[in-house]
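Our example copied in:
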Amino acid sequence: SENLTLLELADIVKTVVDGDLPIIVEPTDDLSSYRVSSDRLRRELGFRPRHKVKDAVNGLVAAFRGGKIPKTLDNSTISNPQTTRQR
C-alpha cells in the first residue's frame, strides 16, 4: 500500500542494513514509472496491510543474516547478475 520511489526504498534498505552504506545513483535511459494502488484490494476484499515496507526489509535482513535464505549470488544454479551477464 506504500508507493515508494526506488530511492526511498534504497534509503529504507540502507538504514536497516547499514546506515553507512552509500546509495549510488547512476544515470539511466529507463524512464519507467510504476504507480501501485491497493484501493481495489481494500474495496473488494477488505484487505488492509498490517506491515510496512520497512517491516518486510527488516524481516528479509534477519532471514539473510540468520541463514534462512541462501546466498543466491554464490549459487550459479539460481538466476543472478552473474548468470544474467553471461546470457
Notes: Residues 17 and 61 are 7 Å apart (CA to CA). The longest helix spans residues 53-65.
